[in-house]
Structure formats: C-alpha cells, structure tokens
Amino acid sequence: MEGDSVTLNSGLTEMMDEDLILWKIWIENSLIIELNVTAKGIDVYDDHIYERFRDRLKLDNQTGSLTITSTTTEHAGLYVVEINIYSRSFFYLTVYARLPVPVISRDCSSASSSSSSYCSLVCSVVNVGHVTLSWYKGNSLLSRISVSDLSISLSLPLEVEYQDNNSYRCVLNNPISNQTQHLDITQLYSVHCCGSTEAVIRLVLSALVGVATVILLVYDIRSKRADQDHARIPSSQT
C-alpha cells in the first residue's frame, strides 16, 4: 500500500567482510545503489532516478536486505540483488494507491412520471488504477468492471426500483484493500415521492389557472353583450 514500508530480503542471515552485494533497481535500466560491506558504503549511480528514493532507502549492513520507506507508485518495478556476482534474486514490487470511497449519484428526473418505478444510479471513482468496481445486492454480485491502467476514471450504472427493501452497495477494491459505499433506498423513495407530489401540485395549479382564465373570459363576453343590449333599447318620451 502507498505510504507503507517494504523490505526486500537478500536471503543472507549474516554477511562476511569479503561479500559484495549489488542492489539493482530496474527503472530505466539504471543501477541505483551498491553496497560494499567491506567499505561500508553506498554508491549512487544515477542522481536523477535516485531522487524518487531519496531518504527512503535503508540497507542492513548485517544481512544486505533493502528497505524502502514511505513507498509511492513510482517505486513499483523490478528489483534485483546480486551476491558476489554468482547469486541473483529478483523481486517485482507493486505499490497500490490508497483507494477513494466510491460516489453514488442518481438521475431520478423520470420520477415525476407516475408510470416510472425505477431510478438510474451511477457509482463512480476518479484517478484509480488496477482496481475493480462492483455493484452488490445483498451478497449477490450484480455487475462489475475492472481496469489495469493507472489514473483513470470508472463508472458503473444500475437501475433500482423504488421502495425496494433490498440492500445495495458499491465496492471498489484492489488485491489488498477495498472501499464501500452503501445505498440508502429511503433517499430514493423520498426523491420519487417529492418529485411526484411536485408534479401533482403543478398540475393542480395549471388547472386552476385555466379555470380562472375561462371564468374571466365568459364574464367579459357576458358584460359586452349586456352593454350592447342596453344600447339598443330606445329612451322613453315624455
């Protein structure tokens, strides 16, 4: 996990004065450090690449094992240890970034329709790599998507029925950790309920406005007719 320390063992329990250990870190095919037990020294061969390891490398002078502290994803790669030139061991280091908590967004715009009984959901994460994103209903897997690239965004859709009593969750995981976001069904029902209520209110208001308009129009027509009839009646003579 990013930020943790890792120790790569040389395989020796104790080194002799004449032993020579070379640790090769295969990043851009460069040799980063060399430990000569007799000289008790560390030689750096590539200052540019060594910068990413600065203050993070610790070598055990008794065993020759290498420890990397405060690891980042930049430290992932192939490590080779050579003991007296004749013995060689390989290590492939994978450093996983710490996982964010997935975000569940919803599109319940269709909730205003009385015929709609489902809500569309999307579970998403950004800037992740070597992960799997999954939807679960209870303990049953519904859908899953995986990615092996670095720094990519993922999204996974799901449709849920309103008033569904099942428990849903979205899970983001890699081989060593996971993050889970649970879905609150009551929030979806609230959105559906409120959306329907709002639609009904709007419909009633529109109807009232229409009725009022008709009443005003009829009143106006009757008033004009009454005025015209009054104008046609001749005045009485004395």
TrEMBL record:
Keywords: Membrane, Transmembrane, Transmembrane helix
Transmembrane segments: 199-219
Phylogenetic placement of the source organism: Eukaryota, Metazoa, Chordata, Craniata, Vertebrata
Keyword Transmembrane helix belongs to the record: yes
Name of the protein: Ig-like domain-containing protein
InterPro entries xrefs: Ig-like_dom, Ig-like_dom_sf, Ig-like_fold
Origin superkingdom: Eukaryota
Domain Ig-like as annotated: residue spans: 102-186
Keyword Transmembrane: yes
